Amino acid sequence: xxxxxxxxxxxxxxxxxxxxxxxxxxxxxxxxxxxxxxxxxxxxxxxxxxxxxxxxxxxxxxxxxxxxxxxxxxxxxxxxxxxxxxxxxxxxxxxxxxxxxxxxxxxxxxxxxxxxxxxxxxxxxxxxxxxxxxxxxxxxxxxxxxxxxxxxxxxxxxxxxxxxxxxxxxxxxxxxxxxxxxxxxxxxxxxxxxxxxxxxxxxxxxxxxxxxxxxxxxxxxxxxxxxxxxxxxxxxxxxxxxxxxxxxxxxxxxxxxxxxxxxxxxxxxxxxxxxxxxxxxxxxx
Length: 285
Prior knowledge:
This protein is of the alpha+beta class. It has two domains: 4-127, no CATH class; 141-276, no CATH class. 51% of the residues lie in helices and 15% in strands. It has eight helices and six strands; from the N terminus they run H-H-H-H-E-H-H-E-E-E-E-E-H-H. The protein has helices at residues 4-39, 42-71, 78-92, 98-113, 150-160, 170-187, 245-251, 266-276; strands at residues 141-145, 196-200, 204-206, 209-218, 221-232, 235-242. The longest helix is centred in the first third of the chain and has 36 residues, at 4-39. The mean pLDDT is 91.
């Protein structure tokens, strides 16, 4: 009969394999979002959203059954799961997707034990993204410095966001976006114009729209910035400019469908988003 340590190791290996399968399938679906947007294939995009939404449950359901097969009579033994958590944490050390892997582990323990409240012995408690895991190379945004006009820096960041199809009227959109930014900047009481725009590298896709997410900064003033892009007959166009925490929080509301975004460093992206929406819970993001 396997020892508790052997059971724990076999269980963790199964959990890591399942999470790897989940991430591979999740990533494959997510990477299709850009092509759906460029090709205006909204029906296929909707099917992708449905498929990805059910993926997590399917993988966890399968893993619950596998845990029963591996652990047998010890499937609900807290001592075995305590050992599994320790081995799991050790395996995640230095991994960029550790935050999501911890959440995945918690989903499994809650399914197995039907946990009410929090049990720190068998699940992860501190799920806030931790900076030390990613190091100085985890820069998830690019900076566009404003050397001249606001219009010029907006045009620069739009050109830097390369799609397989062109903008219908990039300069016109840049002018309109700049007018709204300058008005919001004055309304915030800033004397000088914004110094820079910091834009997240991943583009966020949902429905028939794409979202560029970032912030405008200068001196002691900072404003969130979300540009909502649509793909019309003539090409890509800026459909809306969001410049307040309230507007951005609504876009990222849990009541809306999930975004599809290719994110290499999820914890770093969550930290960036939390700075834009400090009232949002990390769990929601």
